[in-house]
Amino acid sequence: MIYYAEDDRGIRELVIYTLKNTGFEAEGFADGKELLDAVAKRIPELILLDIMMPGEDGIEILKKLRNSSSTKTVPIIMVTAKGSEYDKITGLDCGADDYISKPFGLMEMISRIKAVLRRTSSSSENDEYSLSGISINLKSHTVSVNSQSVLLTLKEFELLKMLIMSKGTVLTRDLILEKIWGYDFDGETRTVDVHIRTLRSKLGDAGDLIETVRGVGYRIIDKN
């Protein structure tokens, strides 16, 4: 099931029609309140969330979804105004998995949805990874350092998972953007640096395991 929150009825109905015609179950909602009411009854596989809506805007709804234990891992694609770089960065920093700009092609939208669903599926992965005191459980979406629980945002979790699964390998900022956010954000890598900084802080002394490779990117090392 895919939920789409969009106050423009014509756009909303066209997107829902397209989703259903390409094999998805889908429901549309005129604002964030309707969406949250629906989520309380059934958790969807993915949410399309327009930023500009009456009442609470899409960013505020995104924050509520990410702060809820039941929806913190649900894939969310933000729908932004064309060229609104601020909205894109804000959405990504608040935990969105991807964005799509209006006006968008319907087939591009379907392609983005399928890519996000593939990327966020962990059914074929091992459940748990450990490195120098850091433990990450993909099934329960939990992280601990020396048996002490650490609370991470969705993007911080995905970033730590990517680093640990590629331990010792230098990951470029562009690669991180592509794999975690799903696209090349026109060379904009600031959001990666922000997430690395907050991740290091939350990991405490273990944050030193994440090394900066000047001019290239980041890697995590195993000191054991």
> What is the share of helical residues?
40-55%
Q: Could you name the ranges where pLDDT drops below 50 across 5 or more consecutive residues? A: none
Order of helices and strands: EHEHEHEHEHEEEEHEHHEE
Alpha plus pi helix count: 8
Shape: elongated
Rg of Cα set: 18 Å
Q: Say how many strands there are.
A: 12
Based on helices, strands and strand pairing, what is the structural class? alpha/beta
- Strand order, sheet with most strands: 2-1-3-4-5
Q: How big a fraction of the residues is strand? A: 15-25%
Q: What value does the average pLDDT take?
A: 86
User: Largest beta sheet, briefly?
Assistant: 5 strands, parallel
End-to-end C-alpha gap: 44 Å
Describe, in plain words, how this protein is organized in 3D.
With 224 residues, this protein is an alpha/beta fold. 41% of the residues lie in helices and 22% in strands. The chain is built from 8 helices and 12 strands. The strands form 3 sheets. It has a 5-stranded parallel beta sheet with strand order 2-1-3-4-5, with helices on both faces. It has a 4-stranded antiparallel beta sheet with strand order 6-7-8-9, with helices on one face. A 3-stranded antiparallel beta sheet has the order 10-12-11. Strand 1, helix 1 and strand 2 (26-29) form a beta-alpha-beta unit. Helix 6 (154-165) crosses helix 8 (190-203). It is elongated and about 55 Å long. It starts with a strand and ends with a strand. The mean pLDDT is 86.
